[in-house]
Amino acid sequence: MSGFPSRRRVLTTGAGAAAALGITGTTSHPVSAATASRPAAGREETRTLDELHRAALDEGGKLVVYAGGDTPTQQDSTKAAFQARFPGIDLTLVVDYSKFHDVRLDNQFATDTLVPDVVQLQTLQDFVRWKRQGRLLPYRPAGFSKVHQSFKDPEGAWVAGAVLAFSFLYDNAAAGTDSPLSPLDLVDPKWKGEIASSYPHDDDAVLYLYSLYARTYGWTWVAELAAQDVRFARGSHTPANAVRSRDKAIGIGTSGSAVPSPSSPATFAIADGHPFMAWGQRMAILRQAERPAAAKLFLNWQLSAERQKSSFNGWSVRTDVTPPAGLRPIWTYPNAHVDGFPEFMADRAAVERWKQTFALYFGEVEGDPTPGRLGLHPGA
User: Fold this and answer.
1) Which domains does the chain have, with CATH numbers?
2) Which of 23, 58, 240, 246 has the fewest CB atoms in 10 Å of its CB?
């Protein structure tokens, strides 16, 4: 889409509008400009996880994390693993769409009612803004030096804890020998009525994926896909669910594992020369966090080599964790556009134009938010 304004103009306009509306995120205890611009101090964490665990227990043994996701139970396995590894820590892990968590957090800043200690979100642009505002605690967990440069703030304001990737997937049995090898195959009339997708204009990661499709294959491809009787739904988990339940043969705009597995009933497609998208889900400790010791424990655990090696999709943010056979580190895939997604997320005016354009092709977003309606202070 041509004619997008410059990033500088968008950010300047957005800042002015926010100031006019009084939603710049200031609180009754504003962070000083000197604090906001101060570089991170200290070195990479040297304490062991057990030592950090004891510090978190001494602090009170509680932790609240706001995590981006699609369903209330999506992070249950993370919570169970954390509590099994660190008994005595009461972890509250609140899942909601990142686009709701970020404005919820801004409102908590503005009303001096902060709830979480850690945020773990898809809205990458917020971490840049919160760093500039002095909202984030500079901190380098153990292993920080091993994190790929695309997945960390050099001053330690934030670090990615996991690699997520979106593409399309298909049911092996339903596709048979005619399996779709690239997004170009998705507009073949034989797949009409057999495709599920998350709304691109409801989730920015799916939006970026669809924007890559539109840029690569053109608007004619988008129009042809719109004629495929695609079933759109909220939540990036819904396409995969539709395929795994044998309700649809193909799911677009969903996460998956590219680890080769002959026993898997579905294939997550990442064809050479065709776009998919991947990013690092950013984590940060809030400077005003009530429980900084527990927050540091959580970041160190998420970034630990042990945790990174258990990644469901085989990819790690760390350069010293080797992917399973058949995969390369995610930053070596040019068609994953690892650096493109943060740039895309920074230009909010362009994001809005992409959303409204896809709404013209696919219709307005319908349905309740899949995590539920959580209000202003979940986890309090």
Assistant:
1) 42-163+278-328 (3.40.190.10), 166-277 (3.40.190.10)
2) 58
